[in-house]
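Hey, I was hoping to borrow your eyes for a little while. No rush at all, and the record is pasted right below:
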Amino acid sequence: MGIFSSRKKKRELKAAKIDDAFNRVYSQIEGIGSMEDPKKLEHYILDSCEQIIASTKAMERQKMEYRIVTRYLNDIKTIENLPKETAKDLKNTASNICELEKNILEARAIERNITDEQFQVISGDENDMPEIINRFAADEIYQGKLKRNLSTLEGDKSRWEIEREDLKSQGKLFRHMAIAVMTSFLTLIILLYVMYTASKVDISIWIFAVLFICAVCGFIIFLRQNKLARESRIALVHLNQAISMLNVERMKYVNVTNSIEYSKDKYKVKTAAELQYVWEQYQDKVRDQQRFLQNNDDLEFYNEKLGKILGSIGLADDKIWLNQVNALINKQDMMDCRHRLVQRRKKIRDRLEDHRKIVQEERDEIDRLMTRHEHYLPEIQEIIKSVDKLCGTSASNTVKIKA
């Protein structure tokens, strides 16, 4: 590395000297106005020298790339000619890396039906989730039972209210009947008394009959009124019981509904079955994350192992194969890689040949111009010599630079 760096420094110093010579000559040529002046040819020669230097630099870059590609091809040959044990170990390690990378990609592609918010909330209650789900499901069942009880109690309450209202109506009716009967009997007695006063007829039998009928009717009405009053009291008792039980059931329903709504709002679900599904998705996602971390750890281990194997082989560039793992286990991929490198090296050779032709054509043109004119600035001749030395060019055999 020291030799190459010293050579590079010498080239840079030479190039710097040539640049200074170019600047001095250009400053002397700038004042020339006639295109027929030989000095303009010197300007053209300088341009040709610059073109030679640029093409030479491009050739150096192409040569460096050519050497790199050649090293890659040599590395492929080295890998293909490895001892069986080393080749087997290399292939197994590369296979494990490919499998792990595939698993990681598949894990990343998996999408679970759980939001980030749900994941965060459930992660905080992870240990209690089975009990929470069971309680949620039990609350839903209890809520359904309470709904049915409320419906039944509402029906009972309405039935007792209707029956009580009906008993009240019957009571009113019998009171009106009692008033009507009393009024009728009084009217009959008055009529009988008028008949007795007018005709002096014995009406005692009729009076006794009217009184008897009045007593019987009054007694019947009295019994019916007592029965209606008793039934009304019973209906009121049942109504109060229904209302009391309804209030208790409503309180229970409100409490269990609040508990259900709290779970729904907290976990962003609608039912216990949906919460059970989200819990399963959470568990799957946790397992995915654990597998992902484990695969990453394994991948890091096998990448380090692959790096050690490649480093022990003595390749020119072992790092590049860390990104070409498939080629280490698949012959077709390795063949494709070699083919691409061969094609790339051929293109580099073609470009080198093109640059070489350009350099030679420019150098021949300089020789041709130098034979036509005898007087040049001393710096021109010095520049041409420096360019030949820097770029490895020379005058043609039939042309000599005149001093």
